[in-house]
Amino acid sequence: MDAIISRLKDHLNQAVIGQHKLVDKLLVALLADGHVLLEGPPGIAKTTAAKAMATAISSQFQRIQFTPDLLPGDVTGTEIFQQETGQFNFVAGPVINNIVLADEINRAPAKVQSALLEAMGEQQVTVGNKSYALPELFFVIATQNPIEQEGTYPLPEAQLDRFLMKLLVDYPNAEDELKILQLVRTQSAHQHTSPSPICSEQDILTLRQQVLKLYMAEPVENYIVQLVMATRHPEHYMPDMVNMIDFGASPRATIALDRCARAYALLKGEQFVTPDDVRAVAHDVLRHRLIPSFEAEASGLSVETLLDHLLAKVPVA
Questions:
Q1: Are 118 and 69 spatial neighbours (Cβ–Cβ below 8 Å)?
Q2: How far apart are CA 166 and CA 146, in angstroms?
Q3: How many CA atoms lie within 13 A of 40 on its CB side?
Q4: How far apart, in whole angstroms, are the C-alpha atoms of residue 155 and residue 39?
Q5: What are the structural domains, with CATH classification, of the chain?
Q6: Rounded CA gap, 301 and 309, in Å?
Q7: CA 304 to CA 301: how far, in whole Å?
Q8: Which helix (H) or strand (E) holds 127?
Q9: Residues 33-82 pLDDT 10s
Q10: How far apart are CA 24 and CA 53, in angstroms?
Q11: Chain-centre distance of CA 225, in angstroms?
């Protein structure tokens, strides 16, 4: 299984130049059995990363372009009346696949977002009075552009909490930009060739079981709990940060930290989870689950800064 992880990383790093952190965290989310929200400016390979992951795994992939006129049935599927039989038949929508790219998710209205929320949270879709199960391997990669706010529908906190991680993607440096240019030219010359899958759905499911079985000592578990508690009661750890966080992380964040730390340790080839593994994924797991107060914003304290302070102050048990 270590060989599969290594080949997956190599495949993704070759397809997405200069985004090694993004590749690692996408694999963490995949192995931790969660969904990921990518935020960054356009044209920096968010969609490319999702497609590269889909080609690496022998699975079904579908991209959904979210727009203001999208309907829930366009995502989940709908029942169509068959005149020959006089019955309604369900036609599956694009969300009923293994890997789903929800492109510019914040451009869809609330009803569409709620349909995706059910799929992410319950691993099923409901059409009419019937529910349809999604595949066992179901992974949503959603993207949103932070630059344009006009004509968008901000994701509600309940839906943000459904994402295991929120990853911030930035521009590559000049050296990587040159490699991207050369890669695109090479791909254009071989556009009819398609790479063979590296692993199967069952391989990913097996890796997920290994993640759950990875050893985590009780002090590390207590450290995870204390980190989440610190987001709810920062005054206990940082007296100078009183009233800086309006709402802290939910119990879902505790579970997410546990799973992501385990997946990150497995990705590094470790046999047990350390506090460093927890810290490595803490920002990605918690940044979309905290709501800074007005006082924090007025003081110029971002979510990232607040998390830096928490990680510096909360001791390892």
A1: no
A2: 13
A3: 17
A4: 12
A5: 2-190 (3.40.50.300), 214-313 (1.10.8.80)
A6: 10
A7: 8
A8: strand 124-127
A9: 999 999 988 888 778 888 888 888 988 889 999 988 999 999 999 888 88
A10: 12
A11: 21
Look-up of token digits 């889909």: 54
Residue 2 sits at the vertex; the CA angle it makes with 135 and 53, to the nearest 5 degrees, is 45
Which letter, b or e, does each residue of 261-297 get, where b requires 16 or more Cβ atoms within 10 Å of its Cβ?
bbbbbbbeeeeebbbebbbbbbbbbbbbbbebbeebe
Which sign does the torsion angle of CA 274, 276, 277, 283 carry? positive
Residues whose CB falls within 8 Å of the CB of residue 109, separated by 6 or more in sequence, listed in order: 68, 70, 153
Taken in order 224, 225, 231, 233, is the CA torsion positive or negative? negative
190 has a pLDDT exceeding 80: no
User: Structure tokens of 182?
Assistant: 């050369």
What pTM value is reported for the model? 0.89
First to last CA, the chain: 32
Amino acid at 239: P
Is 124 buried (19+), middle (13-18) or exposed (0-12) by CB count in 10 A? middle
Dist CA 171 CA 224 (whole Å) = 31
